[in-house]
């Protein structure tokens, strides 16, 4: 049994020591240190915009533009989607994740890709790129072979290449800026060889600057899908004077991330047709 502290000065000293210990234990950095480090998500679980909030922040809703057609993008995280409900809310186009790397296919892809079409939407497929696992051409073939193709039916958008922060490791997938540009070029060239269309490029300006050195060489042929959760699309990657699509929020009023096409529905149909 501890010795009894006699007298008021001794009691005050003991009380002060206890209070100091409790204050130290409550410090945020010590509490955080006691927690386990965040787990790396399983391969295949990535989705469009996964790294936008932690890297670029979350902003307000966009300034209203009546001419911009509303869209959504979905992945396995949304499961089976109620497409008629989305159509009733004003959504007129959609992209569904088809593939990732050469190791993953979205198990809900058929319902999402076909269901959006059945509801009347113009739809497309996207591929989540993992440049550290295989070549660009190899991943383009995998994408086209598993849902990422294109047809001139006025309802099918060209496939989209999702280039963004790596959720599984190094932000730029361990590549230099020049090797990243080469990887993207290989994907685009192979996709065009297989489908006759240039893919849409999805990215954020911050990632593009860091991981490609703000390369401008794709801008003349490649539709840009910019990711920025704010009231405006903001600065675009080098070479692009305008965006084609804009992912403006991951917390929209309905399922999936919400997007705007920079034009009317008729212009979106022309993009689908390739005219």
From TrEMBL:
It holds the Pfam family Glyco_hydro_25. Keywords: Glycosidase, Hydrolase, Signal. Residues 1-31 form the signal peptide. Belongs to the glycosyl hydrolase 25 family. This is Lysozyme. It comes from Streptomyces thermospinosisporus.
């Amino acid at each position: 049994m501890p010795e009894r502290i006699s007298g008021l000065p001794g009691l005050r000293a003991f009380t002060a020591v206890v209070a100091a210990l409790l204050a130290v234990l409550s410090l945020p950095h010590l509490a955080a240190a006691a927690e386990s480090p965040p787990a790396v998500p399983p391969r295949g679980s990535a989705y469009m915009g996964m790294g936008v909030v932690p890297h670029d922040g979350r902003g307000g809703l966009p300034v209203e533009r009546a001419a911009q057609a509303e869209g959504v993008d979905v992945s396995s995280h949304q499961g089976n989607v109620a497409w008629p409900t989305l159509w009733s809310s004003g959504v007129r186009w959609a992209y569904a994740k088809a593939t990732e790397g050469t190791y993953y296919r979205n198990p809900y892809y058929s319902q999402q890709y076909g269901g959006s079409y059945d509801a009347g939407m113009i739809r497309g497929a996207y591929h989540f790129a993992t440049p550290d696992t295989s070549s660009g051409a190899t991943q383009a073939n995998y994408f086209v072979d598993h849902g990422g193709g294109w047809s001139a039916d006025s309802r099918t958008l060209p496939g989209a290449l999702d280039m963004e922060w790596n959720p599984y490791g190094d932000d730029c997938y361990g590549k230099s800026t020049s090797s990243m540009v080469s990887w993207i070029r290989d994907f685009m060239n192979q996709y065009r060889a297989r489908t006759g269309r240039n893919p849409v490029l999805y990215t954020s300006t911050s990632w593009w600057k860091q991981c490609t050195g703000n390369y401008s060489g794709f801008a003349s042929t490649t539709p840009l899908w910019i990711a920025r959760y704010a009231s405006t699309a903001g600065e675009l990657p080098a070479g692009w004077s305008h965006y084609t699509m804009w992912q403006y929020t991951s917390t929209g009023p309905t399922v999936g991330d919400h997007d705007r096409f920079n034009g009317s529905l008729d212009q979106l149909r022309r993009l689908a047709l390739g005219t």
